[in-house]
Amino acid sequence: MAGGSSSSTTGAIFNGNETQTRLRQEAEQYDDIIQEQFVDSYNNLTIKSVMALKWIKERKCFKQAAFFMKVDDDTFVNVPNLLHFLLGGTVPLYNETLDYYDSNSYQTLSDLNRLNATVNYMVGYMFCRAPVLSNVKSKWYMPYYMYPQDMYPHYLSGSGYLMSMDVVPKLYKAALNTSLIYLEDVYVTGMCAEKAHLKRHHHPLFNYAKSKHMCTYKGMISMHKLRVEDMYASYNFVTNLTYQCPPPGKYFKRIRLRRLNGCG
Question: Which of 123, 119, 82, 76 is nearest to 226 (CA)?
Answer without folding.
Answer: 76
